[in-house]
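Before relying on records like the one below, remember that each one covers exactly one chain. Contacts with other chains, cofactors or solvent are not represented anywhere in the record.
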Amino acid sequence: MPKSYRHHPLRGRVNGNTPRGRRIRRLYAGYMKGLDPNDPIARSSALAAAELATTSEDVRSRVMAGELELSDTLVRVSNLLDRAERRLSGLAGRESPIDETTAFFEELAARRAAREAAAKPAATDEDETNDD
């Protein structure tokens, strides 16, 4: 993240008190994983992708609820989102920022499981010494 909150791209642009604003913030944070936080192009691309993702989700939910007729708007917003995510992938030099986030959480889970497994035998050894 930028060192100064004043220069943060979400400040003043996204209201974190609304569900849409919180969703944009979470998506932005996910897209920024693996990107250079000091790169203004990466930050603006991540914010644009996050905003497009929430817009796409909103349009899709309206179509599914029957409020909107299936239209070119859904297709256009989905295509814009796809292009924005591909642009982000090119900035990071990887296929998808989502894949890296998933791998990161899987690695954390594996580390936690290894720590728990290492802690259990130590507790068993202490119990054996107390029984003597």
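The chain has a mean pLDDT of 76.
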